Amino acid sequence: MADHPRGALPWLLVAASVLLLAICLYLFFGAYVPAKQRLVRLESELKQVYAREAALQSKMAQQDKSHSLREQQQAAMTAERDGLVKRIEELERELARSKKR
Questions:
Q1: pLDDT digits (tens, 9 = 90+) for 33-80
Q2: Verdict on whether the full-model pTM lies above 0.70
Q3: Measured between alpha carbons, how far apart are the two ends of the chain, in Å?
Q4: Phi, psi at 3, each rounded to 5°
Q5: Which helix (H) or strand (E) holds 30?
């Protein structure tokens, strides 16, 4: 049997492996980690925006409720005022008739 002499590793293969390792490390630490951190910041900001929107929605609902209550009160007051105006007119006519007699 013939002994196969152990061949030396080709330097091109070693250089390519090192270059591949460097690219992988760059992609992981140079691109992935900052992107992941940015994603966490954006998710946090999104939660804050949703919380602010919920607060504004509840405030708007309270204002709508208050506004509708004011409208109802105003309508009731207008109806009461109209009733009083009619009653005053009736009383004035009655008074005018009484004075004519």
A1: 888 899 999 999 999 999 999 999 999 999 999 999 999 999 999 999
A2: no
A3: 151
A4: -75, 130
A5: none
